[in-house]
Amino acid sequence: MKSLKTFSVTAAAAMAITAGSAFAACEGVKLYDVSGGSFVVDRVGTPWSLVVPQQIIDHPRGLVLFDTGLADDVADGGCEAHWGEGLCQYLQPQWTRDDVIDRKLQKLGFSTDMVKYVIYSHFHVDHAGNLELFPKATHVVQKIELSHAWWPDKYFRGSFVLKDYDDARDFDYLELTGDFDLFGDGCVTILSTPGHTPGHQSLLVRLPKTGSVILTGDAVVSADNLTGTPPGYTQNLTQSFDSIERIKMIRDAEQADVWITHDLEQYEGRKHDEAYE
Ligand SMILES: [Zn+2]
Description:
The chain has 7 helices and 13 strands. It has a 6-stranded mixed sheet with strand order 1-4-5-6-7-8. The radius of gyration is 18 Å and the shape is globular. It has one domain (4-268): Ribonuclease Z/Hydroxyacylglutathione hydrolase-like (Metallo-beta-lactamase, Chain A, 4-Layer Sandwich), CATH 3.60.15. Helices cover 24% and strands 23% of the residues.
């Protein structure tokens, strides 16, 4: 039998969700959406330009970063020295030094040293490229993603660049095995969404005015994945479908906005110079 306390907390949460926006417990939490460059992939013979956003979450108990973008070493023509010729020709990154996350933080009045947690959707080159810029942070990643990133499955190895994190073995890692509520208040919740990679994770951010936002990472690669089109690049399609269903269930339950990482049209429709509150 539920205790009265459990019931009242659950009822309050349900009311907040029904209201469709305000999460009073998340008062003071802000979300910034930043990006710069892009890269290109081949999609059934057609070049497809992908934007590379990262999100900064200013929580009263610490500054949080979701993904770190392409490595600073890739910027301004440095690609071949860092990635090698093959990957550079395949992805054709458009990436300047000002596109790198440390400069994005500075522009908003933050610094790399102020970041308490860096959360990674996964360890592909376009998401974990600047891990080594944050030696003082705690790095939040699924345990299986860490071990896989160091020795990826043979046919997916090209998307992981060991140089992005081989000097960071002694950093502080929060090694997860599933979901995790980062501050214990429901405002920044890591969702396990495997498939694209074995330890892929998405992020549910609850904001006092905006309501819920799901940062999909690459669990959803393009908007049509939400209506049944299989994601084109995934290590485990069954897991990917389950993860997409999970995101849709949370979207519907919380009336959440779903931010698809690489969706250029979506990105251009959002604001970038001020916070979502
Ligand atoms: Zn990606």
